[in-house]
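Bumping with the actual sequence this time:
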Amino acid sequence: MTLLKLWYCMGSGKMLIDDLSVDILLKISLKSFLSECGRRLKPYNVFKWWGRRFVVLSRAVLASLVVESEEELMDVVQGRYDVVRRYSHGKVIYDPFCGGGTIAIEASLMGFKAMCQDINVAAISVAKATYSLCYKGFCFELYSDLVNALMNTFKEVRNLWCNGDECILHVFACRGEDVCKVPVWLSTKTVNGQKIPVIIDENGYVKTSDEAIGLTPTHPCYEINPIKKRLPLIAKNVFAYAAEVYNVNTFKRRFISLLNTSKESEKLRQFLEQSYEKSLKELYNTLSSQTQIPLLKETRRLYNKGIEFFEELFTPRQLVTMIEFIKNSTNKLEASLIVANTMRTASLLAMYYQPYAKANPGLVIKSYWLPQNPVELNPIAFKYASGRLNSIGRGTLATYIKEMWHTCSYISFPDSDPESIDFSIGDSLTTPPPQNTFAIVTDPPYLGKQSYKDLSLLQLYALKLANIINTIYTLNNDVDTYSPQQYVKAMNYFANSLSRVKTGTPVIILMGMPQRNHINYVIKIIHNFANSKLGLINVYWVLGEAPGVLGRSRNYGILIMVFRKGSEITYENIKKQLNNIQSYKSKLMELLNTEYLHKFKAIRLLNITKELNLYEMFLNSILAQ
């Protein structure tokens, strides 16, 4: 028996996570950032959740609770779940703010018994659906079911999207009854490796232009009266001015403008008008009533623009198509979440980005922003040949179903299927953890960041369309991330809810590095935890999943705060981290500037430096109080 094992047997409670070395923190940081920079690891890439999904970091934290050496820890970080399974059997990991389920799912793959709780039904739904992908047999069954639902839906709604052999891919639109602004720049074609702008000329015809100087996605533009121009209506106060169509046999694409009097323009105009009337009638027959959008911080701008119902965020035929897709699937939960993914691009929150010739998803900046020139994407545009599914366009139903196929092909486990997970919807601020909990590992909402109750509304609406939930409700007991005082109060409730856990139980909290003006509030949380006999054993800063370029967040790092029931704040460990910080910073920046420079833009390096400076300030603040 090794010395470390003997220590465990004697009941000291000492764990690897209590004192991680600078070298292991560097390895975890680099692995985490390089693996997850700009992408989600499988299986977390299929059903989208708004929170950051720290897969590598979750593995490191969970493994460090039980493995004996840093070498074993890095084996687990690399994805070798078998290394940790000999230690994890029978141990319960509880995540009270489980969000999309990353911690719980990784724990189950490692052989822990996981318990996943969240107050948001959308979060639990995403976690359940993602967990279902971890069973390889079911994953492929689900994929086949969704492909069949896709093809059957196409047959049923083809008349709404296709006129003969030509089907709509994108409809370019503008808002406004009196004046519509139509950008001159329509799209981009690639000819012989060269990108050439596609424009609408002064006579209203589509043509390619060799001259791109002065063109931007919004300027110059034509100001027109949509009624006088007889532009067809595709939604409330939204008019079509052009379309991109594809041939269902050859899949060749072309653009048609509605700003001229040609025969093809008139033919498209008539088809869009007829399709709009048909889809409206079908929608009225399908939905008994409209669904109110909750008035929240992030939805106020919708109300300010006169949008109060979810149905107003889509064109009628988009909504009819997505409802039919859910109906045609036998797996309603997974189908509705695929629809929720698609709603970001197949809605009037999306806009077309001409340089890339693709639809830009709505909510890309985590905000319900209504573009002046929305694009209507056909959510059912796909091609299926020789057993292979491909999407036509970006962000369609086929986009995410194909992603699922890649995930199903990737999934493999060396020993067995994952351990079971107990999913529950509940308020973690007042619900005590299970008494048999081995460790609590969680990633709660971050102070100063957006609330997921605002951002998960489309997922809730998709679940309602599938009759999985009956109403869309606001989460009054959700952690208030906008008010520092309310946030501290909520985390104090959480600390009090942990009073039942056994002495020696570790509580690991992952938290985004607080901004300078929030540091003192996090210090208050640490002392509130100490008052509940949860002492801070150590706190580390590591690199995590990077936010997107357009995202509001500038967090590149994550604090790993290690608490233990029955312990005092271990100031010696905090001093050690402070003494090591200059070495940590210089080694990390040296690695990033040399071996991994191609992965890191200057702004990223600058933000990382700023965060490490904040980390140093944070450690000094802990010691000062």
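The tokens above came from a reply further down the thread. The chain has two domains: 3-48+55-134+411-444+479-613, 157-378.
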